[in-house]
Amino acid sequence: MPEGPSIVILTELIENLHLHKPEIIEVSGNVTTIDKDRLLHQKIQEFRSFGKRFLICFKDFTLQIHFMLFGTYLINDTKKTPLKLGLTLKKDQLNFYTCKVDLLEGKAHSLYDWSIDIMGDEWDSKKAIKKLKELPDSYICDLLLDQHIFSGVGNIIKNEVLYRSRIHPLSKIKDLPLAKIKELVAEARHYSFDFLKWKKEGTLSKHWEVYNQKVCPKNHPIAKKEIGKTHRQTYYCTACQKKYN
What we know:
The protein contains 6 helices and 10 strands. The chain is of the alpha+beta class. The chain has 2 domains: 4-112, N-terminal domain of MutM-like DNA repair proteins (Alpha-Beta Barrel); 125-237, Helicase, Ruva Protein, domain 3. The strands form 3 sheets. A 4-stranded antiparallel β-sheet has the order 1-6-7-5, with no helix packed on it. Strands 2-3-4-8 form a 4-stranded antiparallel β-sheet, covered by helices on one side. Helix 1 (4-15) packs across helix 6, helix 3 crosses helix 6 (178-201) and helix 5 crosses helix 6 (178-201). It is elongated and about 60 Å long. It catalyses: Hydrolysis of DNA containing ring-opened 7-methylguanine residues, releasing 2,6-diamino-4-hydroxy-5-(N-methyl)formamidopyrimidine.
């Protein structure tokens, strides 16, 4: 599943095409969740990312694309996978595969809480801390994946941030010192931008300290378990990461 930084990269790739309010001249694909005719001859106002969602913004509505677990995209290219949505512009083509497409009435700036977007300029760390403290009995491994708190954080970021913060994934919020909660929130944003940098360089996996690893940087064995209420695959070091209780 693409995480927030990967959606930022998609947005930047399209921005690099230097499109200026391009008109959609053809709509294709097997998408059934929207009226494709609604898009025809509409001018795109801008492209944006919000957490794990890619947004194509029009004057009065917003097209939201979520890549789910296996979604992909191609710019000015195609592949054999059934096309979910294809948008043909004057000089370029945007193709989306194995994704969820929704059309939302209204402009993007009013549809989303931009303060929870981990990659966004409006990210509000104090708000994240407040929301975490309102869920004292929740495991931190689950809360890092809560898109209402950390929009854009996925499983890779979760695992790496917990290791950086030296917090065991099954620690509950009520047992974490406030300083540790603040550190965790700060690391969630810091690591997201490190992820972005390394992804662009093609070196992301070389920087993983626990995710998909057998030992941590200190040569301690890594545990791999499906834990928490979300039962997501979690990698952690029982020696380096303290379980608060």
